[in-house]
Design goal:
3-oxoacyl-ACP reductase, NAD(P)-bd_dom_sf, 7-stranded parallel beta sheet, about 270 residues, Rossmann fold, SDR_fam, about 15% strand, single chain, alpha/beta, SDR
């Protein structure tokens, strides 16, 4: 299926690995020009190099080779965002697609989190996506096309006790999007949706497994097996299939979807709604 977005510009956060990389890859392979953002310059450039090669192969089969630009900054800071808007060869703030994604806060016991920990979580997982939306949404509306996808978490629907920082910050973003997505921009070709990952085989899950294993008196390997057995699909997801869902939400075909929380968890969430 042609998603109808070749030649457009996308900004993807946390794009050097994991789910952010999966989204950047899926968009680039659809012919979208991608600005990849992450903190670590070396890992980011290696990911971009791999993606440039893959996109070039796709281009040989008929696609126009997209531009892939890297910006190694902390997107949660004002200086980092300014660097993105001013990167050489980029579109300034005139993005057609924005995929917000920042590393989740660490797991732990809520009794141990002070105000600084909460502010950091809210800044990274709520306020930063809002700042990116504010900077780009009016331009999208003026051009008559825009897609914003916020990578949040399945914990928004089914909170995880050791991820309280994430539960709180991401739920705040979800409430904001519920209102903003239904404002007048909905009639101007701009959609805002949240993509909620369940358990995917990324560094994030490898970081949270030890805390969960310790809490239940299990080894990490036992905890992994328990988790996978609880997923109807019988496995963790992978970044490539997550990216494919993201690319669809960014496509011309998803124009009638806005303000939604799209859950990708292999059937793990047990609720009807």
């Amino acid at each position: 299926m042609d998603l109808g977005i070749a030649g457009k510009w996308a900004l993807v956060g946390g794009a050097s690995k994991g789910l952010g990389w999966g989204c950047a890859r899926a968009l680039a392979l659809e012919g979208v020009n991608v600005v990849m953002v992450a903190r670590g310059a070396e890992v980011l450039e290696a990911a971009a190099k791999e993606l440039r090669f893959e996109a070039m192969v796709e281009a040989a089969a008929g696609w126009k080779t997209p531009q892939i630009i890297t910006v190694a900054v902390d997107i949660t800071t004002e200086a980092g965002r300014e660097a993105i808007w001013n990167v050489a060869g980029g579109p300034g703030k005139n993005y057609d697609i924005v995929v917000t994604n920042a590393g989740g806060p660490p797991p732990g016991d809520f009794r141990d989190w002070d105000r600084e920990a909460w502010i950091k979580a809210i800044d990274g997982n709520m306020l930063t996506p809002i700042e990116l939306i504010k900077a780009t949404v009016d331009g999208m509306a003026a051009r008559g096309f825009g897609r914003i996808v916020n990578i949040t978490s399945s914990a928004v629907k089914a909170p995880i006790d050791v991820l309280g920082l994430s539960n709180g910050a991401r739920s705040g973003l979800t409430g904001f999007v519920a209102g903003a997505s239904r404002s007048k921009i909905a009639g101007q070709g701009v959609t805002i949706n949240n993509l909620l990952p369940g358990k995917f085989d990324t560094d994030r899950i490898r970081a949270t497994l030890p805390a969960m294993a310790q809490k239940q008196g299990k080894t990490v390997e036992e905890m992994r097996a328990i988790q996978q057995a609880q997923i109807p699909a019988g496995r963790y997801g992978n970044p490539q299939e997550f990216g494919a869902i993201c690319a669809f939400l960014c496509s011309q075909h998803a124009a009638y979807m806005t303000g939604q929380n799209v859950l990708a968890d292999g059937g793990a969430y047990p609720g009807t709604y």
